[in-house]
Amino acid sequence: MPHAITTFIFDFDGTLADSLNHVIPLYNGIAERFGVPKVTASDVARIRRMAPSQALAAYGVPLWKVPRIVRAVRTLLREKIDRLEPFEGIGETLLNLKRNGARCLLVSSNSRDNVEAFLSRHQFLCFERLTCGSSLFGKGARLRKVLLQASLVAPEVAYVGDEVRDIEAAKSVGLKSVAVSWGYADRDTLREAGPDYIIDHPSQLLKLG
Predict the structure, then answer these.
(1) Three-state DSSP class for 195?
(2) Separation between Cα atoms, residue 28 and residue 25, nearest integer Å
(3) Engineered SS bond to 183: which of 14, 70, 107, 142, CB 3.0-4.6 Å?
(4) CA 88 → CA 94, 166, 183, 204, distances in Å?
(5) From CA 167, how far away is CA 183, in angstroms rounded?
(6) Which residues make Cβ contacts (< 8 Å) with residue 27, sequence separation at least 6?
(7) Which residue from 64, 71, 86, 65 is spatially nearest to 10, judged by alpha carbons?
């Protein structure tokens, strides 16, 4: 008999926060400094159809440069955090999940300062645990640690994210994967990665709990 989902672990960028339109200009502003190509509007549509590793290879961005670029973008994003908005329906859905008795946690590669500032500004108070600053490619290990620390039963937990790496991280530790179509990766790319669920509006999470 399948386990019911009692706990939702959320990604941040592209899942809760509509940050792509801020991140791209910030990245372009530092691209020359790091010797990497800038991204145009047409590039964004192409990148959304790729896994992160594929995008890095396609645009000639060495993997060793990624942590430095990510740290620089995170620092700059902190100055714009008051302009960062949630996706439509996120706030109401989080509130209803909590009212329905679901546990909500967050695991993000973004910085704790950025995440806390965003959650505080929008009064998203449902998260019992924040795990921030994880490596772009190390979410599986972070999820495993959260399961132990929060005494969670993996088959009862869903990780909600917007990228192929979120689906892969969930699978690697035995969590159900919920892919959201409104974030960084497009729907077809997410579907090919084989998530347990793909949703097109936050309210659909209420049918999974």
Answers:
(1) coil
(2) 5
(3) 14
(4) 12, 21, 12, 13
(5) 13
(6) 38, 39, 69, 73
(7) 86
Write down the catalytic residue from 11, 13, 162, 166.
11
Provide the residue type at 92 as one letter: E
Q: Give me the half-sphere count of Cα atoms (radius 13 Å) on the Cβ side of residue 88.
A: 4
Beta-sheet strands, E only, within the chain = 7-10, 103-108, 127-132, 157-161, 176-180, 197-199
Task: Tell whether 90 and 169 lie within a shared domain.
Answer: yes
Q: Is 11 an annotated catalytic residue?
A: yes
Give the model confidence (pLDDT) of 79-126 as tens digits: 888 889 999 999 999 999 999 999 999 999 888 999 999 999 999 999
CA distance 137 to 119: 24
For residues 195 and 177, what is the distance between their CA atoms, to the nearest angstrom? 5
Domain limit, last residue, from 41, 56, 82: 82
Identity of the residue numbered 48:
R
Q: 25-45 pLDDT, tens per residue?
A: 999 999 999 999 999 888 888
Q: What is the pTM of this model?
A: 0.90
